[in-house]
Amino acid sequence: MHKLLNTPLLRKESYIGGEWWRGESTLAVHCPATGETIETVWDFDREAATAAVRSAELALPMWRDKTAKERAHILRTWHDEIIRHTEELALILTAEQGKPLAEARAEILYGASYIEWFAEEAKRIYGDVIAPPNNDRRVLVLKQPVGVVAAITPWNFPSAMLARKLAPALAAGCTFVCKPAAETPLSALALAVLAEKAGVPAGVFNVVVSSRAREVGEVFTGDAAVRKLSFTGSTPVGKLLAAQCAQTVKKVSLELGGNAPFIVFDDADIDRAVAGAIASKYRNAGQTCICTNRILVQDAVYDKFIEKYCARVAELKIGSGFEDGVDLGPMITADAVGKVARLVGEACAAGGRILIGGKRGNGNGNFYLPTVLEVAAESPICREEIFGPVSPVIRFVNDQEAVSIANDTPYGLAAYMYSRDLGRIWRVAEQLEYGMVGINESGISNEMAPFGGVKESGIGREGSKYGLDDYLETKYLCMGIS
Ligand code: ADP
């Protein structure tokens, strides 16, 4: 065990039906900065996943029938426990995921903000009374929880992606089962420790750790008691899970891959654009679904932008997330580094030019150096979600060309644009086929705003006043009164 992790929040057991389960086989969790094993946790299968669904099903009537205020109080208490344990949660997160400790603390607070927000929103679920077609009846609409919700979450934000799903689900009156990514199960288990402490009743929140993702996914998508699946991860897995859910016609929320364009127009504040692009590209070592994937810079400011951007990239400090002043941690696995190296190789073979970086880091960890590449819009690296610290930069001439390059992808999650011309901002923002557009701002994600994508980037929205809808059914009551 890592010496910094001497905390009761570190668990090896899965949390099912309010009990801490021990299994028969185990799964090692590695530190991506050093390769060392941080902890060995119990590894579960189909049976445990099924048991978790049964527990959630059993707990549903009790949780659904609590008043909104009671549910809100429990969520608020859970939020407060998370805030109280921010430091321990952040240490666990950095240890298993690799991100710099400052980013880990920010992720814990960000995740907690969703629990706080939905604790508040729980009390604002409204039905409707509609004008009837005849006076002998009344037309009413109720909002009710969808039922048991299953969630499958990724390793890039192992705490916050879970919080973003469990918070609206529990607020709405749904019970919840989840499978965290096998690379990063410790953050999810730590949240379960605090759920128990906060008084979340047994069976309402369940965590099943498993290296057999497909097997658990089949249970979550195949069991008729599960009425909704919420998934964050890659587009191919999202498509597969959506297809599996079709068999029992479950609701699905999918938060999938992106290919975010970052457009710098010739009237932009270049320093602001550089700072925005650095934050958006290199946060979490480039491993976020809303990370800038392509930087489009207008001809007249291209050289100036490149000079300033490369100078900032050269200053980024790479190292273990536990080191002071580190900007960029390791990537999650050696395979992830291999994928980035392949994409850079393909971009160069297609005529791309490396301006800075372009190679792996030294030592044992999964490091790739922050990289800037000049490429053409058709370069293979512009077609894939890079998910690593590489900035392909493309030159463009006019607004129409920028919009057409930006939209030339099956993805549609986040886009960014920098300009000071209000007319141009409106025109381009409306034409971008994306669920979220950052305008002179790259820190777009917060609990009060609707996060989500269009096209193959997903279905549904997380956070905001819209975020509860995905967890509610609309029931129509027609009441005869004559
Ligand atoms: P990433 O590239 O971020 O690892 P994945 O989509 O592979 O994205 O993983 C996101 C989550 O989906 C993880 O929890 C992973 O274990 C899970 N997962 C991967 N493949 C499957 C599958 N076939 N069925 C169910 N879950 C899966």
TrEMBL record:
Signal peptide: which range, if any? none
Q: Which CDD domains match?
A: ALDH_F5_SSADH_GabD (cd07103)
What the record says about family reads: Belongs to the aldehyde dehydrogenase family.
What is this organism's lineage? Bacteria, Pseudomonadati, Pseudomonadota, Gammaproteobacteria, Cellvibrionales
- Which InterPro entries does the record associate with it? Ald_DH/histidinol_DH, Ald_DH_C, Ald_DH_CS_CYS, Ald_DH_CS_GLU, Ald_DH_N, Aldehyde_DH_dom, Aldehyde_DH_Superfamily, Succ_semiAld_DH
**A Gene Ontology molecular function term of the record:** succinate-semialdehyde dehydrogenase (NAD+) activity
| GO annotation terms (biological process) | gamma-aminobutyric acid catabolic process
- Record-listed E.C. numbers: 1.2.1.-
Going by the UniProt record, its keywords in alphabetical order are: Oxidoreductase
Using the record's annotation, list all stretches that form the Aldehyde dehydrogenase domain.
22-476
Which SUPFAM superfamilies did the record assign? Answer: ALDH-like
Which residues are catalytic?
E255
Name the record gives this protein: NAD-dependent succinate-semialdehyde dehydrogenase
